[in-house]
Amino acid sequence: MTRIWFVSPVYLDVPSYVILRERIRTVLAQHPELAAADARFVVLDDTAGLDPEIERLRGLGDLEVLLPPFNLGHQRGIVYAIRTLGRSIADDDLVITLDADGEDTPEDIPKLVAPLLEHPELHGHVVMAMRTRRRYASARFRILYFCFRAMFRALTGTTVRTGNFGAFRGWTARRLFLHPSFDLCYSATILALDVPRRMVPCERGPRIDGTSRMGYSRLAIHALRMLLPFAERIARRLFVLCLAALATAILGAATIAALSLIGDVTIPSWATYALVAISALCVLGLGNLVVLFTVFSQSRAISLANLEQVWPPRPHEARERQLA
Questions:
Q1: What is the DSSP string of 254-287?
Q2: Is 135 within 8 Å of 110 (Cβ atoms)?
Q3: What is the pLDDT of residues 84-114, one digit of tens each?
Q4: In the chain, count of helices (H) and strands (E)?
Q5: How many domains in the chain?
Q6: Element (H or E) spanning 252, and its range?
Q7: Which domain holds residue 74?
Q8: β-pairing, 126-131 with 63-66?
């Protein structure tokens, strides 16, 4: 092992990241198997150059600041950073992704990378932190998070208990992250692709400084984006549900027709119309949901596709654009 890359998206959280970086360096120094590695820190400025405090980080010799053209969000920001660094990362390097606010605790890094160090031949494996409990979350957040997990399980058949805290080899970073589903969401795509992975129990820590800027509206959008990589699986489940609803409607109609032929049972006329109307609305609504969900997922993918290849422009390209 020659190098460890620490990739973090930073959105108006530079004070927390400065402390986080020092804690990471302390943890590395305390573990001989990690102390010999060359630690490289990569920060994605998710304000797209609007945060003046980012300049505090540019003078650090072991740190590189990446500047996207616009705000990507923490999930797609990680993907953009890894794709941008693809040519600089060697196959045997370690890549660790974590948030900048300290909730992904640096003290868990040794056990997170332990499976990769014990089995260096497992290049294609991904190790993700499995959240055990959230002691610092509010009761309202826990209730909403439980509801989201239940909905996610019902739609995808997968239980989500991961965030951005993960580790993998450079071999994986240079190949796996070219998959277009990563244009939608980082952590959910790892679950959707069914890549070889290991889960390491890690408790979520408290924020280092300040308060979270992820309000409930942004959390709702984030929850929707996590569903996007599962679009095909969700569409398949909804299609089965459509067929089940249609079969139920046909069975109900056949039952009403049979009872009418017998003559001993009086069925109100409105019951037949209600059954037909409800069945039609059910099938129509589910069909539209499948179409809209698929279109939305593709529109989100377009905004990040090949972005790392065109931004920032090369000097001669920028000059040509100015002359044009």
A1: HHHHHHHHH-SS---HHHHHHHHHHHHHHHHHHH
A2: no
A3: 888 888 888 999 999 988 888 999 999 999 9
A4: 13, 7
A5: 1
A6: helix 231-262
A7: 3-214
A8: unpaired
Which among 229, 227, 234 has a CA at the least distance from the CA of 289? 234
Query: How many C-beta atoms lie closer than 10 Å to residue 300's C-beta?
Result: 16
Check pLDDT > 70 for residue 205.
yes
| 72: in domain | yes
Q: Provide the pLDDT for residue 263.
A: 63
Of the chain, the percentage scoring pLDDT greater than 70 comes to 80
**Which of the four pLDDT bands, split at 50, 70 and 90, describes residue 22?**
very high
* Pairing verdict, β 166-169 and 126-131: antiparallel
- CATH number of the domain encompassing residue 189: 3.90.550.10
pTM (2 d.p.)? 0.78
Residue with tokens 């069975």: 251
CB of 269 within 8 A of CB of 256? no
Contacts of 81 (CB under 8 A, 6+ apart): 7, 9, 42, 44, 66
Helix 14-29, helix 109-118: angle, nearest 10:
50
Return the closest-CA partner of residue 80 out of 7, 21, 18, 12: 7
* 186's tokens: 């980082």
Residue 321 belongs to a domain: no
